[in-house]
Amino acid sequence: MLLATGLGWATSAVLVWNAGPALTVLAFGRTTFGATCTGAAKFCLRRAVAHARTRVQFGQPLAAFELVKEKLASMAASIFAMEACTYQTAAQIDSGTDDYMLETAMLKVFATESLWRIVHDTFQIHGGMAYFTDQPWERMMRDHRIDLIGEGANDVLRAFVALAGMRDVGLELQGILQALRSPIGNLGRLGTFAARRLAALLLAPEVPVHSSLLEEDAIRLGRLIGRFGNQVQKLLRHHQDEILDRQYLQARIAEAAIELYVSCCVLRLLDRLLRKAEEEHDAAPGGHALVAGRHYLAAARRRTGTVMSVAAIDSWPCGRRVPRCPHRQGGRP
Q1: Which among 75, 153, 261, 300 is least surrounded, fewest beta carbons within 10 Å?
Q2: What is the DSSP string of 248-309?
Q3: Angle at CA 15, nearest 5°, toward 9 and 19?
Q4: Domain span including residue 118
Q5: Domain-located, residue 274
Q6: Which of 122, 151, 150, 152 is nearest to 137 (CA)?
Q7: Do 139 and 195 belong to one domain?
Q8: Average pLDDT over residues 115-124
Q9: 46 vs 25, 39, 43, 76, CA distance in Å?
Q10: How confident is the model over 210-222, as pLDDT tens digits?
């Protein structure tokens, strides 16, 4: 059962999740979305590459055009990330832990929306012939639209990811506010919190990797994680109880959290592949996987930075007014 508690402003942003058998089945189903979407995406990429190489327009194959190259590169990077995230989430379930609802929700949102973009780009690369029923694309457009709704609609899962992810932060901030009411008796707790906040401002979280080829990517990811944590604390302090109704902010927080989680999965898979290549004395460690993984990490950094800027406290009033206009005017533009 999904409940929003009302025990104070911090714990109002807590989802109490009773992981009974039904929800466990949902979590497993969301993980299978990662696998099935990855398989479908690989099929799309193979066919898109084959078509782009053989279809000639303006005297050259489609694969020679930069915008087509961009689509194919983005598809390959997303597929690598989908696979990495699926492996990592499934491994967490196999480890025996009961705490995987958040990860499966993030995987489901990421995998289904990545596949939807890949199907769309594959359709675009095939052009008008994609409408022909002897091609699979018009059916894939129909069949995979349900992915964004089944096993929990993605908009609902975004709210869950945001609020459940902010739970521990909210509880800690509530405790600090209570300690401030009696500072003499809580100097130790307040001092520990202040020291950690000062350290967070000066030092980014460390993302450990074994391969030297990934050190710079790990440092950048750590900085983003630190920035994200600071942003979440600012939002909770500013909005307090109102965060439950700020779906615009919830979506932005969830998008950043999903990008960071998937980036961690990508970095971990790349690190494992590079270690294996080094053990086998591979002359070109990583190969295509390294290119695809780094392409995703770079794109994710840009998207995460943009999302966190949009989710800034000062930008919220501007983002709030526009969606309310059609509602107030009876749906008229």
Answers
A1: 153
A2: HHHHHHHHHHHHHHHHHHHHHHHHHHHHHHHHTT-SSSSHHHHHHHHHHHHHHHHHHHHHHH
A3: 160
A4: 24-152
A5: yes
A6: 122
A7: no
A8: 97
A9: 32, 11, 5, 10
A10: 888 999 999 999 8
List the structure tokens of 259: 């990008």
Q: Pairing between strand 60-61 and 56-57?
A: antiparallel
List residues with catalytic annotation: 151
**Considering the domain boundaries, does residue 331 fall inside one?**
no
- pLDDT reported for residue 180: 35
Q: Which residue has the higher pLDDT, 30 or 50?
A: 50
Predicted pLDDT of residue 10: 34
CA nearest neighbour of 107 among 35, 26, 17, 34: 34
The answer to whether position 269 is within a domain reads yes
Asked, for residue 233, whether it belongs to a domain, the answer is: yes
- Residues 72, 194: one domain? no
pLDDT bracket for residue 232 (50, 70, 90) = confident
Same domain, 54 and 99: yes
pTM attached to this predicted model: 0.80
Residue 44 vs residues 37, 92, 153: alpha-carbon distances, Å: 10, 28, 24
| CATH number assigned to the domain comprising residue 109 | 1.20.140.10
Residues 134 and 173 in one domain: no
Query: Between 154-165 and 247-279, two packed helices, what is the crossing angle to 10 degrees?
Result: 80
